[in-house]
């Protein structure tokens, strides 16, 4: 199947490097105009030709391949607020790993599209997604991905207020580790990520705006719960006063967290199918490669840089929430992801990423599913108005006014009952008094 959308290319007008067509979403499937009108080059041959013309030391191969990829699968790029504050969030995952060993194979299954942010595309018939937020200049992608995943999971049961990413920045600190299994690993995967083994222990170091990992944030939330954003607002800075012992009561409790896919390949060894299986239950916190044109993405189908090759674990440097998947008639399966760069990035804060047979741009590595439930306190919705602000009048909140109303009602009712009883007693005494005769002169 030819994946490149048809385009007319004039042989006379075209020159070396003109894109002719691509037969798949991988760069090596593309054909390019060579030196003459009848010359056609593969991607590797074109790169070799450019190197021979400009001499090896002047060709930035990675940058050239990114540009070639953009030509093959055009998506919109532009400016967003992240360019103003800087892209520090792109390299905000602190991790390392140790490992064991590998094997495996792939299949493909087509199933209906799923999107937990679209009421018409999930079994609940409603959007359960958290609102898109902006991490601003702080490297807090890990915290925002964590609270968004927690909110979304809890929203499946009942509505919950926004959760505090700042609490994670302030309080989820230090070293955490977790073992991940990759039963889907094949020689193809190890070719695109030589460092990846079938069993690895990931070590996270959560350090506020300097980075962290969602699984470490979930472990903190499992032990302590998460309070609302109203209780601890986001400041895009580390440690608001440095007080983690004075947090408000949690509004969401975490029952458990686990690797979403990779531990069991009894039904399939296709990583994309396993990831789709995981999404059937709830959205998933994931890590992703954010190099190349990631920060400039404004819409369309995005292709992972470097043909999905993840040369080192450090290349997986950003956290997002995987909320669904759909299909493009040309490029097939793609993933729907929610980011924390604000609504002026991507498609109102979301990205469509073309699935690949490597690591899905890192999504396969650290997908974390969680169990989360709102606490009793979180379901008391009378305290929040339509703008998600505490309801307040005359210096008293909703709960205080309800208490005043109950007190006044009880007092009034009691006073009324006492008054009725006194009046009845007085009437009875008057009826029992002896009659007196009066002389009329």
UniProtKB/TrEMBL annotation:
This is Cysteine protease family C01A. Residues 112-371 form the Peptidase C1A papain C-terminal domain. GO terms for molecular function: cysteine-type peptidase activity. Belongs to the peptidase C1 family. The lineage of its organism: Eukaryota, Sar, Stramenopiles, Oomycota, Saprolegniomycetes. InterPro entries: Papain-like_cys_pep_sf (IPR038765), Pept_cys_AS (IPR000169), Pept_his_AS (IPR025660), Peptidase_C1A (IPR013128), Peptidase_C1A_C (IPR000668), Peptidase_C1A_papain-like (IPR039417). Signal peptide: none annotated. The chain crosses the membrane at residues 398-423. The keyword Cytoplasm does not apply. Keywords: Hydrolase, Membrane, Protease, Transmembrane, Transmembrane helix, Zymogen. The keyword Hydrolase applies. GO terms for biological process: proteolysis. Pfam families: Peptidase_C1 (PF00112).
């Amino acid at each position: 199947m030819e994946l490149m959308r048809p385009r007319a290319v004039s042989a006379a007008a075209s020159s070396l490097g003109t894109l002719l067509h691509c037969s798949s979403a991988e760069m090596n499937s593309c054909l390019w105009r060579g030196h003459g009108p009848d010359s056609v080059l593969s991607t590797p041959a074109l790169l070799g030709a450019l190197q021979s013309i400009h001499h090896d030391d002047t060709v930035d191969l990675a940058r050239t391949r990114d540009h070639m990829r953009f030509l093959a699968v055009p998506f919109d790029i532009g400016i967003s607020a992240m360019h103003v504050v800087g892209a520090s969030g792109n390299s905000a995952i602190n991790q390392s790993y140790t490992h064991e060993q590998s094997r495996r194979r792939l299949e493909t299954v087509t199933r209906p599209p799923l999107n937990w942010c679209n009421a018409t595309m999930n079994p609940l018939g409603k959007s359960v997604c958290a609102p898109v937020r902006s991490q601003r200049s702080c490297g807090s992608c890990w915290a925002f991905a964590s609270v968004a995943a927690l909110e979304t999971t809890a929203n499946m049961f009942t509505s919950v207020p926004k959760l505090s990413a700042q609490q994670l920045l302030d309080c989820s600190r230090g070293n955490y580790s977790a073992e991940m299994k990759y039963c889907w690993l094949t020689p193809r995967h190890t070719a695109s990520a030589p460092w990846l083994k079938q069993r690895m222990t990931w070590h996270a170091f959560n350090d506020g705006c300097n980075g962290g990992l969602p699984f470490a944030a979930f472990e903190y939330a499992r032990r302590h719960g998460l309070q609302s954003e109203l209780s601890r607002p986001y400041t895009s800075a580390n440690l608001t006063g440095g007080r983690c012992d004075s947090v408000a009561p949690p509004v969401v409790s975490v029952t458990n967290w686990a690797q979403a896919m990779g531990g069991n390949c009894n039904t399939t060894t296709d990583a994309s199918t396993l990831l789709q299986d995981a999404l059937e239950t709830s959205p998933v916190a994931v890590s992703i490669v954010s190099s190349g044109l990631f920060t400039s993405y404004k819409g369309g189908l995005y292709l992972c840089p470097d043909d999905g090759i993840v040369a080192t674990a450090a290349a997986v440097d950003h956290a997002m929430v995987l909320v669904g998947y759909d299909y493009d008639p040309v490029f097939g399966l793609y993933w729907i992801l929610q980011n924390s760069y604000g609504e002026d990035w991507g498609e109102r804060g979301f990205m469509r990423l073309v699935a690949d047979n490597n690591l899905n741009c890192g999504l396969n590595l650290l997908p974390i599913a969680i169990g989360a439930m709102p606490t009793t306190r979180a379901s008391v919705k009378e305290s929040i108005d339509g703008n998600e602000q505490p309801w307040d009048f005359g210096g008293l909140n909703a709960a205080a006014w309800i208490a005043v109303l109950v007190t006044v009602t009880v007092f009034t009712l009691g006073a009324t009952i006492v008054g009725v009883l006194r009046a009845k007693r007085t009437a009875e005494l008057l009826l029992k008094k002896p009659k007196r005769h009066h002389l009329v002169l």
